[in-house]
Design goal:
Length: 760
């Protein structure tokens, strides 16, 4: 039952669920308790004072081992049904109520229930209809709103849209999703969720933000603009609001899911916004691993999703779509040039020298010394403006903080209150020495201070995304700001392996620094230097020497229906994928049984006599035999000796999923934990690798093409770096084969590859 329910419906049934389903089927199609067919009399208003005790037990209930009263109290109860009483007693009570309605002239004749026999559509609850109508009205109100007028009302008469703000908000109003908006730092991405919340305050938008500081900052900004918002905590008051801020870790918890389900039931939830969505690509097994569950959680929420960021490379788009489980063909992209016109970019190399001009001492000292000189000199020349110094490491941040006598900030710098105090003290200053702060990349997001005029990096970040994000803390009001990177000379050599290629290119300065940023961060190949109206970078400085009423309602209805179709289509696609993968698992087991005991060489050669060992093969010594033997040994060494299999993905002796290998048995009801079977042995030891190599030897070129496409779909660039290392790491990766909630199994990706290549 579990196997076929998963294969044909995408959901796994357990014993408890089947008991409820069996009683529900019996009630609806056999006992007829839902309509007049269940009564002995044809008159719906016949009195029946005896209640459930006068009802004869159904033979269908007796067969299940209980009477009809017990069946009604326990099994197949409807949502909204009270804790006491059964459906039969409820129907009797309803008849009495309708008699009173008829007596008082409340129109009971128009509401006489016609029953719900087999094949008859269930009458919707009036509350469901009212709540859906509320949602429809909210959608229509947002669809018709004067976005420019509402913007001025929210932010003041001088407010105007910038960049792609207006088209993005209009796309949100039309119900388009998923939406990904890439706007430069300080470009006003938060308007995408704040303006709809201001215009339609009775709806609810969930905003997932990566940092607590960013939540608190946005909450304060919402309060100033009169938007009902609050920060969700598991122990706090959990209420509906126009905007609800939550961290990714909290968003995937059971408590927040229950909150979302309640909001769904009230038809309050309109959309989910993922702010700073590029951080989803930065999680790992040791760094914020819960973020990896966010894509599945967003699918479960079942509402439109909007993603916001300032730092998403075009080459990272596929990886983001994969993590969030978006269909790439459906994503509505809004990308602006993220390079800031008002920031001047500059780089300095530094090395320590003695009085004779000879190199000596630690280069780190020279970098820190130069950074402090730059900060002091800049502050002496500017009466107002704040400074952020990014040190890269905690130790360097502490040293710079001590030298300058300024506040130091990193993730572990005290508790949340202490960190908030430091930030508030720094933000409240107008400039001078009190406007200095040394920090790690923990301050790379969440700070929206318009008065930052200088950002200095002591050492260059290893990823260009971080450099762009952190330098973007400056000049958020559109006024001039400087971004200076001070680098050790030895970093030029280290950068060849420790830094991304684009960071190395930015640091070397062989071309305009904006040219590197535009190409890598925006995919723009048109820039050849800084242009008029931009702060000139140091490279270019050197080179130069210096967008009635009935029609509107119809359009709103059409967009609403299209949005709902997309929601249903996404869920259907997810179920079909689970069903397809469930069938793959069964096919994989058939492949193992079919190939077991075969000589791989004779098998792929199409020989009738193939059931013998390779050592007994009549083709031993031929090139095909040698290629097979060498390939098996090489893959065995890479996958097993070098331990490429991810944790829980396989039996480390045979490579098969623990759910299949007879050396293991289930240790939990969900099939996720296993324990060794005493005396158990792998029934297909070494077979997985032999099949994998045989498929490759049989058709090398087509095998490479197909596997390459599979890797590209998973967001892996097969044209950069060590291709074989990437291949084996990818083959050993953990996959939820058949869906985690659909009765699937945990396996390594090599099992999927073998199955999908079989017979192709």
């Amino acid at each position: 039952m579990q196997q076929y329910s998963t294969q044909f419906s995408g959901q796994e049934l357990n014993i408890s669920a089947w008991r409820h389903i069996a009683i529900g089927i019996s009630n609806r199609y056999f006992n007829k308790v839902f309509g007049p067919n269940g009564s002995d009399s044809g008159d719906e208003f016949d009195d029946d004072d005896n209640g459930d005790s006068s009802l004869v037990d159904s033979i269908h209930d007796l067969q299940a081992g209980h009477g009809s009263h017990i069946a009604g109290l326990i099994y197949a109860r409807l949502f909204g049904q009270g804790e006491l009483g059964t459906m039969r007693s409820r129907e009797q009570f309803r008849k009495v109520s309708m008699q009173w309605h008829r007596f008082f002239g409340f129109g009971a004749e128009d509401r006489i229930e016609r029953g719900l026999g087999a094949g008859v559509k269930r009458v919707r609850s009036i509350f469901d209809a009212e709540r859906e109508e509320m949602q429809r009205k909210r959608f229509g109100k947002l669809h018709r709103m004067d976005v420019r007028g509402q913007l001025k009302q929210m932010m003041g008469p001088a407010a105007e849209f910038r960049g792609l703000q207006e088209p993005v908000i209009r796309a949100v109003a039309r119900g388009e999703w998923p939406i990904v908006q890439i706007t430069p730092t300080g470009g006003g991405k938060s308007l995408t969720f704040m303006l709809p919340a201001f215009c339609v305050p009775d709806g609810m938008t969930i905003v997932i933000t990566p940092l607590v500081a960013l939540q608190n900052d946005m909450d304060a900004r919402c309060a100033k603009m009169g938007i009902d918002a609050y920060v969700w905590t598991s122990r706090g008051v959990q209420r509906a609001a126009s905007l609800v801020f939550v961290t990714p870790e909290s968003a995937v918890t059971k408590g927040f899911r229950i909150f979302v389900e309640r909001m769904h039931g009230q038809q309050r939830l309109d959309r989910v916004v993922v702010d700073e969505c590029h951080t989803i690509l930065q999680y790992s097994k040791t760094f914020r691993p819960q973020i990896g569950r966010l894509g599945e959680t967003l699918q479960d929420f079942g509402v439109p999703v909007v993603c916001l960021t300032a730092t998403l490379k075009p080459t990272q788009e596929k990886a983001l779509f994969k993590e969030l489980k978006f269909n790439p063909d459906r994503v509505r992209m809004f990308r602006e040039a993220t390079t800031r016109r008002n920031i001047q970019y500059r780089r300095e190399y530094r090395v320590r020298v003695n009085q004779e001009g000879e190199e000596e001492g630690e280069e780190d000292d020279a970098v820190e010394q130069r950074v402090c000189e730059i900060v002091r000199a800049w502050t002496a020349a500017h009466e107002h403006g704040k400074v952020i110094i990014y040190g890269g490491t905690i130790k360097r941040v502490e040293r710079i903080g001590a030298i300058l006598g300024c506040m130091a900030y990193w993730r572990g710098a005290g508790n949340a209150d202490e960190k908030a105090r430091r930030i508030e003290a720094w933000r409240s200053s107008e400039g001078g020495e009190s406007g200095w702060i040394a920090a790690t990349n923990a301050l790379g997001m969440g700070i929206d201070d318009p008065n930052v005029r200088l950002v200095v990096h002591a050492g260059i970040p290893r990823q260009l995304v971080n450099l762009s994000q952190e330098s973007g803390r400056g000049g958020r009001d559109g006024q001039r700001s400087e971004s200076i990177v001070v680098i050790r000379r030895s970093e030029r050599e280290e950068a060849q392996w420790a830094w991304d290629d684009d960071v190395v290119e930015f640091a070397e300065g062989k071309c305009c620094r904006r040219e590197v940023l535009d190409r890598e961060m925006d995919g723009s190949m048109e820039r050849f230097g800084c242009i008029e109206g931009e702060e000139v970078c140091d490279v270019c400085y050197q080179q130069q020497g210096i967008r009635g009423e009935q029609e509107e309602e119809e359009a709103a209805e059409a967009d609403y229906q299209r949005s709902q179709r997309i929601i249903r289509q996404v869920e259907t696609e997810r179920i079909l994928q689970v069903m397809r993968e469930s069938r793959e698992v069964s096919e994989f087991e058939d492949i193992l049984a079919e190939w077991d005991g075969c000589c791989m060489v004779c098998r792929i050669d199409g020989r009738d006599e193939a059931y013998h060992s390779m050592d007994e093969c009549p083709q031993k010594g031929l090139k095909i035999w040698d290629n097979m033997k060498q390939g098996i040994e090489a893959v065995q060494d890479e996958m097993f000796a070098k331990k490429q299999f991810a944790k829980f993905s396989a039996c480390y002796e045979c490579g098969l999923p623990q759910a299949i290998c007879k050396q293991w048995e289930a240790a939990s009801d969900d099939g996720r934990l296993f324990k060794r079977v005493r005396g158990g042995r792998c029934q297909y030891n070494g077979l997985l690798v032999r099949i994998f190599v045989a498929q490759r030897v049989q058709a090398v070129d087509s095998w490479a093409e197909k596997v390459g496409k599979m890797m590209e779909r998973d967001g892996i660039d097969i044209y950069k770096g060590n291709q074989m290392a990437k291949l084996y790491e990818w083959l050993g990766g953990l996959v939820e084969w058949g869906g985690r909630a659909g009765g699937g199994i945990q396996a390594s990706r090599i099992c999927q590859v073998v199955t999908r290549l079989n017979g192709r």
